[in-house]
Amino acid sequence: MFEPGISVYGKRSAHLRLRLLKDRVARYGVAAGGAAVIFSILLIFFYLFLIVAPLAEAPEAHEVAVYASQSESPVIYLAIEEQAEIGAVFERNGDVRFISTSDGAQIKKVHLPIPKGAQVVSFSAARPTSGVVALGLSNGQALVVRHRYKSSYPNDQRVITPEIDYPLGKALVDVAADGAALLKVAIQEEETFTLVGWSRGGMLSVVRASPQESLLEDEAGFEFERSSGNTDLEDIQALLVDPGQSNLYVISRGGDLAWFNISDLSHARLIEQLSITAPGVKVLKSILLAGGVSILVASDDGVINQWFSVRDKEGVRHLKKIRGFKNAGASQVLVSEYSRKSFFVADNDGNISAFHTTADRLLFKERITDASIRQLAIAPRADALWALDDNNRLHFWHIKNEYPELSWSSLWSKVWYEGYDQPEYIWQSSAASNDFEPKLSLTPLTFGTLKAAFYAMLFAIPLSIMGAVFTAYFMAPKMRQLVKPTIEIMEALPTVILGFLAGLWLAPLVESHLPGIFSLLLLMPVVVLLAAFLWSRLPIALRRHIPDGWEAALLIPVLIGAGVFALNMSSPLEQWLFAGDMPGWLRHEMGISYDQRNSLVVGMAMGFAVIPTIFSIAEDAIFSVPKYLTFGSLALGATPWQTLTRVVMLTASPGIFSGIMMGVGRAVGETMIVLMATGNTPVMDMSIFQGMRTLSANIAVEMPEAEVGSTHYRVLFLAALVLFVFTFAFNTGAEIIRQRLRVKYSRL
Amino acid sequence: MTTGIRQWVNSGTPWIWLTAAAVTASLVMVLGLLLLIAVNGLGHFWPSPVWDIQYRSADGKVQQLIGQIRETERISASQLRDAGDTVSADVDGMVERHLLKIANRDISGLDFRWILSAAITERSRPEKLIVMERLEWGDFYGFIQTLRRDGQVIAEGRAAWLELTAALEYVDKLRTRIRHLEKTEIGSINYKIERLRLEKRKLELEGADTPEALADLDRQHSSLQAEFAGLQKKLEDLYRKIKRDTVSMTAMGGRQLDIPVANIVRAYQPNAMSLPDKMFFYAAKLWEFVSDDPREANTEGGVFPAIFGTVTMVLLMSVLVTPFGVIAAVYLHEYAQQGPLTRMIRIAVNNLAGVPSIVYGVFGLGFFVYVLGGNIDKLFFPEALPAPTFGTPGLLWASLTLALLTMPVVIVATEEGLSRIPLSIREGSLALGATQAETLWRTVLPMASPAMMTGVILAVARAAGEVAPLMLVGVVKLAPALPVDGNAPFIHLDRKFMHLGFHIYDVGFQSPNVEASQPLVFATALLLVAVIVILNLAAIAIRNRLRERYRSLEQ
Description:
The complex is a heterodimer of chains A (748) and B (555). With 748 residues, chain A is α+β, with helices and mostly antiparallel strands. Chain A is built from 15 helices and 31 strands. Among the domains of chain A are: 10-56; 449-747, MetI-like fold. In chain A, helix 1 packs across helix 15 (711-747) and helix 5 (495-512) packs across helix 10. The longest helix of chain A has 43 residues, at 10-52. Chain B is α+β, with helices and mostly antiparallel strands. Chain B has 3 domains: 51-125, SH3 type barrels (Roll); 139-287; 305-482, Orthogonal Bundle (MetI-like fold). Chain B has 16 helices and 13 strands. In chain B, the strands form 3 sheets. In chain B, strands 6, 7, 8, 9, 10 and 11 form a 6-stranded antiparallel β-sheet that branches. In chain B, strands 4-3-2-1-5 form a 5-stranded antiparallel β-sheet. In chain B, helix 10 (357-380) packs across helix 11 (395-420) and helix 15 runs antiparallel to helix 16. Chain B is flat and about 90 Å long.
């Protein structure tokens, strides 16, 4: 007799208030909880995005300190140690000063043992991680020095002690036999040392010091090996020796390059001599990129070119210009990073620019001073730079540049990697060596994903759509009640089981019965039609026992029989047509390589997984076509098949399409089947007899090993984001189509 | 006749038959697949006969082979020659060959061998042949010679076989005790010692490492050490006892081999077994499969830890997913204002069910493990650092990831249930004076509970079969300890666990001896399929009953 809210007694009113309070609490509680759940689901997208976003951030550099250099003679080399706390300054008078990078305070000074009367005329540094440098003297000798830093932790505080030692001993090494000044010197170290000197007259001298196995002494001595030769190049800009110490590049200012093989000093020989600049263009500076495979050449037209050797058609290696980088000013100073394929350029206007070769892009350009820059050092971790300008000031800057190797082109375009004969799409995220060039092209993975989905859909679409048509439109209701749950269970089968069966049972079966599998595809429709025709010729008395709509059940023995027949016919067929071995025949006669775990197997296994998805949506769509449409059509004299193709399928086509989209979404994201049923090699080949590597399988394989926060880790997140966005977009499209359809039916 | 065919084609009947064939093909594939798994999985445990074969190899020598025939196939001779098999030149066309499991990996190096059936000169099934399952080197096939106890021969021939049966029982008892000692008692002490170490480190970190506190810890530590030494002594004693007996066996080709009885798990004579014997044996093997620990890098023994891990993870997941999923569904359907925004959210939630599971795995690893786990470690477990406690993949994160993955399933199912409840019922309840919360709690939710059940069951079925995300967030091939045990706090959410699905992937693809372990993978697959099919059938049954109920309500 009363509504809530109208109080009759005080006690009841208190009770009522409590009830209303509860109601309100429930309302807000549920709202908060629901919103939180929905928010947390949406969080996935934002989190993935958050991890990927730093990849797109521009690298940046900021100044930490500027101070006077206090050098007494010209500076010939700068270097920074691992933590970027201490820097080393090598001076022409033979002094090495260790300086605190943050304030310029001198920590230690060492005078190198340079004999009286000799001057330092040239300088060279080996691969930067070794810390080995060589000073070429005016008397034809060279001094080999190493700068090292030791960390100790007294009182839990890190203390770094710099020191200088002499890996070949304090004695000088005779390089030029005639005692002529070493106008250019080059050193390389990797257990053995190689020293190369160039002196006037075109004389090239090579000295190799290999450690001597000695049983008696603790410190092994060195065995020296010498060779010399001549070059007709004049005015040499640089001598470059790769870390493997088998290639020597001699580069002249005039733009000529001579490439020698010095792996065996007794048979040193010229491999190639070529011009590396346009006529009239001078070389300003040339260095080796980290890893020592590529040569970077800066010329006075403001371009820096990358060269490395490439095999031609006959298999002979030639140096080839790979790519060029435009830099505004003339670049006298060129420095490569310790382990990544980035390099830094300083010009006469005080600008420093950083480039990455694989990514083929300018990372940043920063004006750090007004004066011309003389010397530049990059920290081993590439997180700091240290530059000396014409005004004798040292600039210490921090760099934030964690993902230089990525660019749109390195992710999606062909890239000419070091050691490759042409630009290619390659995914190879890790290798044993430190200065390995990461190959992070997502193209082969995306291609593999789409290829797997394509073959799966090729298998699944005909079966599922036709099956849906029959089930929804022709099948007897009783049988339909059995068929639908069976297909639903098919959807619930764990994909790990499908993958396992595909990889270990189906793949060997397909390989040994290849002709049978293909003949089955041809045989199946023929046998079915034949069976149907024979059925229609049977006396009506017999046919009456099986009512309409049970055709599918009738076909079970037919299909099993056809399958058994085809597989048994496989071996004789193979014997007859393919000399008993079809994969071998494909390989030898057709030149098609055959993987046991190939796209055919993946297509079948993943098609199997996708069939139920498409089937159930398409079946729903066909089944919910209003009955009066079909009745109308039938009443006008159309056959059931005409009604189906002209009325039902047309009406249901958006639903069927949405089912196919859902299927594609599922096939694209499927992991376990492709992981287990393919060889997981990232090849770009549409062949049905080859495997692939998909985005999802790649994540599953590499994610556990990726270092948190590294480029690799973030690229894997990017792959996940790509998958997420792709499937989400596909499913949303499918869902919207389905909802439209529902509205349309309700109007009909 | 031709007009008959034309008429038949024009009527469209052939195309209808073709569509029927598509359904049939799908059905045959599903049922065939289930049958394949069932036959292979169940057949594995049946004691099949072991053959003693005289085999003439390609060079004309006759040798003795002992083994079980696993597979028989017909293959063309040229294919065999291509594969490098030496088939005598006069053989042509198709040949029949058997895959023989010859076991004795320690002698022959291989478990399996293909033999041509034409080259078998003689074969028999001697009753005396013994099959032994061992702790190392896989199975052994051969004949028993003598049994030695403490170096003395105590039985020969048939008597030795009887004595061996008794000795195996003795060994089995000892082995049970050793396992109890090692796993439960010593495991528990090790756990406590580790806890003490962490406690000490915690005191140091907090600056509360007073001499008294440290002394107390040291006292506890030394008492544990003493206990440990006692157990160690007991264990050594047991190990000495278990080494009592050795059998001398003759393997294929007359090779002699001594096998310590301590290494034998089971010994039987398959050729001498009667049908009831075999059935009994079959049941015992089946029980071992579901209740025992794996042996030999997971390729032998049981899958109990994997079953346990799967169940624990799924239970934890359903505890997490049910309340949140239901609340979200109730909010979307009962409280949120129905409009374009709600519709969009609904579509989004719906579609999250179609987002690849590996994406959830990536999210779980990045967010749950590294962000949440890393911070939990910093706040609550600084004493264990740098070794991570929750900052590494584990049970909790796996459950959370799968809860997120299956959330859309629960939301969609619950919403469907809510929308099936006629409006009249809600209006009736409100008209009688109930508030909205009361209506929801007393009438709507109870009526929608079967729908929620359906959702949860479907979520569980999906979670049980999902492997890809788990590979990133907590599954391992061999977990040292179960996630639930007798050490406080009893449920160890930070531990890694084993999982049936991952077991299939790992044993089938990562194990060194894929061929030998394949039957076990089939058995595991069967187990997983059985669990999932049963769960799905339950969900379907509940859904059908639900529909019936509402049909009566609507009338």
